[in-house]
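Database export, one record per block. Field names are fixed; values are copied verbatim from the stored entry.
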Amino acid sequence: HSTGGIIAGPGWGGDLTLLRWQLEVARYLAPDEAYNAAVLFLETDEELPPAVEVYRTLMLMGERGLLQRFAAILVARPKAWSLDQRNSPAEKAAYMQEQASVINRALDEYCPETLAVFNLDFGHTDPQVILPSGGLIRIDASQRRIFVTY
């Protein structure tokens, strides 16, 4: 998913599990219009959610018309190993591929023109960059650079 150019907007997002809970109870969310032209950032956590749950969360966002409001989507490199699930390198690679596949599927279905950048180091990754909700995120697709104002 890439449209090129420069996209800038306030950032919003986080852990997909927590976002899904917010969507399910319809609390802790701004009015949908507040997300117009914002930059959505998504990450999975140490619970290693299965790909089907990641897809369903994005489907919930798409079905309510929320996913389509974002100007761009940033996706963290998925955490693919935990103390409870010690995946081999091949299992990690397969898990990461499944995550990317279902995210792309949801984007193709609900917002195919939206710029999406994958495998970024924020969220439950190491190294880890912190992205601020409400902070300005600027994506320069032609230079392949992302700038964040905290």
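Remark 1: The first helix runs from residue 16 to 25.
Remark 2: The chain has a mean pLDDT of 90.
End of record.
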